[in-house]
Design goal:
By secondary structure, the chain is an all-alpha fold. It has a domain of 76 residues. It is built from two helices and no strands. Helix 1 packs antiparallel against helix 2. It is flat.
Length: 119
């Protein structure tokens, strides 16, 4: 094989500083350009996020255990209606977290606006 050691042509290195790139792999699509890096949020919101994360982890564990129940203990897994109800619960938690994120963003914006008014 005469061309076995030939290297394929490499594409040119992308311009990571180009406007089109703009941190495509590392940008946070949920933050706006005017959002501050640090902000104040209600402590209750942080607690709600923590509880929601725990609920998602527990629901995930229940579904996972149910799906593997037959191979591990021979018992019947939960039925489709139970799985659907658990997944509906995750969907509701996801919607709540979206609303909570909006509340936290509004609170943070309120503090930023207040700081700008004072400064």
């Amino acid at each position: 094989m005469p061309n076995a050691s030939a290297r394929p042509e490499q594409s040119p290195k992308p311009d990571y500083n180009g406007q089109w790139f703009r941190g495509a792999l590392a940008s946070d699509r949920w933050m706006g350009d005017n959002d501050p890096e640090f902000s104040k949020v209600k402590t209750t919101c942080i607690a709600d996020v923590s509880r929601a994360a725990n609920a998602i982890a527990e629901i995930s564990r229940i579904v996972h255990n149910s799906l593997n129940e037959q191979s591990s203990s021979g018992a019947e897994p939960l039925g489709a209606p139970a799985h659907e109800a658990l997944l509906d619960g995750i969907e509701i938690i996801g919607r709540y977290l979206g609303e909570l994120g909006n509340q936290m963003r509004e609170t943070a914006k309120m503090f930023v606006d207040d700081d700008e008014d004072r400064g």
